[in-house]
Amino acid sequence: MNRRAARWLGPLGAFALAAAMLGWIFSVRLGGGDVYPAYSSFRADALGTRALYEALEALPDFRVDRELRPLERLGTPPRVVFLPGLRWHEWRERPEDQLAALNAVANNGGTVVLAFQAVSKAEEEEWVAADQARRQREAEAKKKQGTEDDEPDEKKKDTARKNPPRRDRRLGKEPEVKSLAEAWQVEFKVRNLLNAKPLATRAAEAAAALPAELTWHSELVFEPKAGSPWRRLFLRGHEAVALERPLGRGRLVLLGDAYGLSNEAMQRARATALLSWLIGGHRRATFVESTLGLEAEPGVGFLARRYGLGGALALLALLAGLYLWRRAVAFYPVRDPLERGGEVALRYEPAAGLTALLRRALGAGGVLPACVAEWRATRPAGGKAAAAARLDAAWAARDPRAAPAETYNALVRALKPR
Question: Average pLDDT, stretch 268-280?
């Protein structure tokens, strides 16, 4: 190995070590899953649902997957679809196309499980206060912009034509929003259940395969409309906290607390009977991640992972690194090879010997005086007296600060016969 290559071993080793440490830290963060939202199947901590996902994945002849596309693009194969960790106030109203996608799964023989995050009455009051404050700020902002409402109608129409809403330009009409009270005939309420035990008991009309009690931390309750096909599954006091409704060839299931699906529940309070009842006779399960904010973007990285181009990209990165290494230039001053014991590259120059001899014998600035003295010494006695006089006059009149080449040219001109 030559010396130039050996200089790079240290920096390359340090870079490789730093990359390995960053990769280890990144894998630890992703393995713990705290970078993902609560109740995501990617999370391995207490707030995730990865334990349930991997348990189903280990079953023979059972298929489990994650849905990262928007909810309205959910397919209709018969299966159990888990939507864990939903926020109740965001699901009082939903776009009509999303509800239609869930209805299609149930109508085709699937089971749709909507499990909501636990909420208390105090948290609900805080949310209501924050929502009212937000609405008040929006109303005040509209009042400040009242001058815009006074514009002529023609000017408003012209502005609307020039700046249409972004969604209208790209995706068409905004989907209609429907309340679950209208679409599914059920309303959400938050009751003060602190005096009750943190348990939910099985309702009388529920299936006998369900457990008699479940650990329950939420105060979210459901109120189905009279005459609707909803059936109560679990109660806290006299309030329904879990419901089931047949729909087509399948069913809808509402759980007011997603704790039973979490990793913590798998370890401390495993509800095996509930999970077995939810799976039923299905041989496939889907965990919807898009409702938690995780959606796949069809970018270059997504396409590379989908078509297995990770190795090719790594090879291209390696080739780019080798090219940069080959073209690298040292940014420190280059020292004389003799000072560091290196080799000297010899090359032939006709005047190199004379130049070295003059440099050692005369030194800097001594060449021209030596030439003048030598000319005087070799001049024949009495010969060229006029030329000698002119040379002496030009030498005496020279400028010491002038370049040696200028002085030399002046002497040559003085020696030429006139």
Answer: 93
